[in-house]
């Protein structure tokens, strides 16, 4: 778990660095929440991981939605903001502040920690770009 926390901290720094945007000082604040765990049966082939966020003082334009996953010793950018594998991953906006990541052709190799990020890139506020704590996805074999 210590290596996961170290990787997550490194990703958060990279996330902040990548998305840091210039602009006027503002008060945009984003909070992201995700379920801590999602366990699925071996017979499930498609799963939806949920992510909810709230934003106060931010622009009315929609934010960028990003998804990452942590495997044992590395992280992968899945949708930053576009998904790298459109057959495997798809982002859905189910309501104004609810996002989900659809994972198709689910196997035990997809067991990982999935992290949702929300970014109002036009904002210079340090709280305008946030990630959730991650959802641990476990598919039983």
Automatic annotation (TrEMBL):
Signal peptide: 1-24
InterPro entries found in the cross-reference section: Ig-like_dom, Ig-like_dom_sf, Ig-like_fold, Ig_V-set, IGSF6
SUPFAM superfamilies: Immunoglobulin
Gene name of the record: Igsf6
Domain of life, source organism: Eukaryota
Organism, scientific name: Balaeniceps rex
A Pfam family annotated for this UniProt entry: V-set
Record-given protein name: IGSF6 protein
Keyword vocabulary terms for this entry: Signal
The keyword Disulfide bond is assigned to this record: no
Residue ranges occupied by any Ig-like domain in the UniProt entry: 49-132
PROSITE patterns found in the cross-reference section: IG_LIKE (PS50835)
């Amino acid at each position: 778990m210590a290596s996961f926390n170290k990787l997550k901290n490194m990703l958060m720094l990279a996330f902040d660095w990548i998305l840091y945007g210039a602009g006027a000082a503002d008060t945009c604040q984003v909070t992201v929440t995700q379920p801590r765990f999602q366990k699925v049966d071996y017979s499930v082939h498609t799963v939806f991981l949920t992510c909810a966020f709230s934003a106060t003082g931010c622009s009315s334009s929609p934010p960028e939605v990003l998804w990452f996953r942590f495997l044992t010793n590395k992280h992968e950018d899945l949708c930053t903001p576009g998904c790298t594998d459109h057959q495997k991953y798809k982002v859905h906006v189910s309501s104004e502040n609810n996002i989900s990541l659809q994972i198709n052709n689910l196997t035990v190799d997809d067991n990982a920690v999935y992290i949702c990020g929300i970014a109002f890139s036009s904002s210079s506020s340090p709280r305008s770009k946030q990630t959730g704590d991650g959802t641990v996805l476990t598919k039983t074999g």
